[in-house]
Amino acid sequence: MSQRTKEMLAKMSRKQKVFQLEQLTTATYLTKGGKYHIITGPNSPIKFDKGMVYDVGTSLNLVGAETMIDAQTNYLKNSKYKNPLMIMQDVIHGHRTIYPINLAVASSFDRGLAKDLASMAAKEASLDGMSVTFAPMVDLVRDPRWGRVMESSGEDPYLNGEMAKATVQGYQGDMGKYNIAGCVKHFAAYGAAEAGRDYNTVDISERNLREYYLPAYKAAVDAGVKMVMTAFNIVDGVPCVGNEHLVRDILRGEWGYNGVVISDHGAFDELITHGVCENRKEAAYLAMRAGCDIEMMSSCYGLHLEELIDEGKITEEQLDKAVLRILDLKEELGVLDNPYRSVNVEEAKRVQLCPEHRALARKGAEDSAVLLKNDGVLPLDKNAGDVCVIGPLGNTGYIIGGWHCGGKETEAVSVLDGLKNKLGYDVKYAQGCQIEYDSVDESMFDEACQLAKNSKSVVLCLGEHQDYSGEGYCRTDINLPEIQYKLLDKILEVNKNVVVVLFTGRPLSIGRLDKVAPAILNMWMPGTEGGNACANLLFGDAVPSGKLTMTFPRNLGQVPIYYNHYTTGRPKALEDDDRFVRFTSCYIDVQNSPLYPFGYGLSYTDFVYSDFKLSNNEMKAEDKLVASCKIKNVGKYKAKEVVQFYIRDVKGTCVRPVKELKGFEKIELDVGEEKVVSFEITEETLKYWNRDLKYVAEKGDFEVFIGKDSDCKSFAKFKLV
Ligand code: BGC
């Protein structure tokens, strides 16, 4: 804490200190009306009088340089103490130039790309006057029904941590005045909501929490993230915002985090709805006791904290510490010196959506697309005859994905336009069917089939509406709608050269699609440049290299299904996957294996893995082992490959996962080129939360795997002695 902020604090009245902890929407301060503004929750009325409103410390969710200037100017004009607002925003996967959803970016397995995309978003956001983004969201996810899996990086703790670090570095890194602060969320275990229903109960053991869910938040904290947001859910019966074990003991205690903690939207009031507090005063008490500094969009601190101090329940020192953390962040971000930070109307116009940013968003979409199936139809040949586009997602900008901040669908490139840009002729389009999941309207089938019949190949754009994923958008049916299957069947009757381009914010259970479609290219929700990226991929000007970071189930009944599950006492042998074996852990009506496993994704080229080596078959705690193998591009395309490194702890004092990702490297190989990739194993690599909940490596056998997906076989064993 600095001398300056200490002096500021000393001059503040108690009321002013309390109001530093309040956060309202930036729209509160507009004199001219906002361009864009979201309220993400059901809010109870906030009963602050005008004077109090102009003492509030921070604000959220409004985009635009001019609106920002208007809001800050008006705030400072009316505020008695003139302590500027620190302005925050959900910049989740891009600010104005929207890049693919985070689940997609993770599929790139490219730390550098994740960092560059975050930096781009930070630059665009800072030019609109933003100081903080409510990202990265690093909740580990296993249930594709949950709409928010699109914001996450998937089911693996190590990958989530790597993406968290890269993203934090991107926001807060090396861009000087264009940096913004990150805010990792939602602490903790929001991704474990029962039945994949948003805001639902989380019931999780301490072991599971520590082993799977906490590592990514910790990685963000270790990377220096400036803020942490608590989650809506309960953990061990207590909503996270008032959860002392999580916030005070683990986050601040064990991890030594000393930055700002903010609640989620309206979560203070939800302590009452949850039934753990009687009223707002008690909510304020619980949250302050746990260690939450900023209250987002409610009024518990504002109306009751002073009273709690008078009654001796909360100390002035607790309040001061919280306020200082906020003032220190304001100082660090330059808000105290310049309330407008980097806001710049002209520069924002030049930089946002500039060609370089579009190019990076396009690269992001290319490198995160996952080729799920290819019977040889792809890549398409530009000279082989007319290509047409069919499907409800073929001629629309509604492929940028939810949480698109200041991005606009009208500024996005559709698949149809992407193909027109590439091919230079008037590519024909037919919608074929509606996008709504319950549509039964077949009236557009004939037109679509006629077009398919007259074309050499068909790019069929199927999937989910972009508003079927994101906050508050959960589903119980994650298959494609029947109408889309019917359309596909009809088209296949007249043309077999069909490539299904899939748009989705979550894993889908598309076993039926996998059976019939000749090729499936999963674009996720690819962002502003989605159509151009898609065209590059379809024609081989870019080669797919994305790998799934969340398992695709065969059907919803398999959910939760994830690769890094524990061993059971009655596992079903892999070779028995296709048959029912009673009294083993399995189902009568479906295999145990998923449709597509974690780490899976095809390429247009072929990679051969050989020369697997492990430097020793024994190691002591202080030793290092090296696992390596050679990868050769034996196909016809220069391409990228994600080399994945897994370990299995064969026996522990607690049951261990069947496999755990411990490293990955994305390499690019020319045709015929080969490269040795190696991974280091240290004691740290082998640690886990053992029987006594101690984070240690236990002696014994370990298996080592390197391969192209999580189905790869082990090639060596070693012993920790
Ligand atoms: C979401 C957060 C988001 C906040 C502010 C909440 O409803 O859960 O992820 O940052 O709103 O918009």
* Termini Cα gap: 46 Å
CATH topology description of the domain at 605-721? Immunoglobulin-like
Mean pLDDT, all residues: 96
Q: Give the structural class.
A: alpha/beta
Main pleated-sheet profile: 6 strands, mixed
CATH architecture of the domain at 605-721: Sandwich
- The total of beta strands comes to 26
Taking all Cα atoms into account, the compactness measure Rg is: 26 Å
Small ligands present: beta-D-glucopyranose
Report the portion of residues in β strands.
15-25%
Please outline the helices and strands.
Blueprint: H1 3-11, H2 14-20, E1 22-25, H3 50-53, E2 58-60, H4 65-78, E3 86-89, H5 102-107, H6 111-126, E4 132-133, H7 157-172, E5 183-187, H8 206-222, E6 227-230, E7 234-235, E8 238-239, H9 244-254, E9 260-262, H10 267-274, H11 280-290, E10 295-296, H12 300-310, H13 316-332, H14 345-351, H15 355-368, E11 370-374, E12 387-390, H16 415-423, E13 428-430, H17 445-453, E14 457-463, H18 482-494, E15 498-503, H19 511-516, E16 519-522, H20 530-538, E17 607-614, E18 618-619, E19 625-633, E20 639-649, E21 660-669, E22 674-681, E23 688-689, E24 695-696, E25 700-707, E26 714-720
Parallel strand pairs: 1-2, 1-10, 2-3, 3-4, 5-6, 6-9, 12-13, 12-14, 14-15, 15-16, 18-26
Antiparallel strand pairs: 7-8, 11-16, 17-19, 19-22, 20-21, 20-25, 23-24, 25-26
Helix pairs in contact: 1-13, 2-12, 6-7, 6-15, 7-8, 9-11, 10-11, 11-12, 15-20, 16-20, 17-18
Bound molecules: beta-D-glucopyranose.
Task: Describe the structure concisely.
This protein has 721 residues and is an alpha/beta fold. 30% of the residues lie in helices and 18% in strands.
